[in-house]
Structures are given as C-alpha cells and as structure tokens.
Design goal:
The chain has helices at residues 24-33, 53-58; strands at residues 8-12, 18-23. The chain is of the alpha+beta class.
Length: 68
C-alpha cells in the first residue's frame, strides 16, 4: 500500500458486496493488538481474489464495478 500510495482499500463479502473500508492505520493497529493484555491470537493475513497489478503496467486505473 505504501509503495503504490494507496491509502484505503474496499472490503467486500463473498459475493462482492462492499462491507467496509480498511485504511493503512487500521492494518497497523492489528499488529499492535497482539500486545494488548488478554489477546490470545492475531491473524494478519491479507488476500485477494483477482490480481490487477498488470493494469498499473498498462497505465490503466482499475474501476471497481461491485461485481466479482
């Protein structure tokens, strides 16, 4: 996110509906959560279903249609 200067990412459910927005700060807070007393585990995996990095090489800007 830092390399591409992305500040926020859409969060979608299993059918592609927008359910929220996550920011860089939100992701950093998760790593700090492991240090909070009483926290048993933190799973910090970020994944994607579609790799659109090739669009950046073409100079295109991806447009999210809400469909997956």
């Amino acid at each position: 996110m830092d390399h591409e200067q992305v500040k926020r990412l859409p969060v979608v459910d299993d059918v592609g509906r927008l359910v929220g927005i996550v920011s860089r700060g939100d992701l950093l807070k998760v790593r700090q959560a492991a240090q909070v007393s009483g926290v048993v585990a933190v799973i910090d995996r970020l994944g994607y279903d579609y790799d659109d990095t090739f669009l950046a090489e073409l100079g295109a800007r991806p447009v999210w249609t809400g469909e997956m």
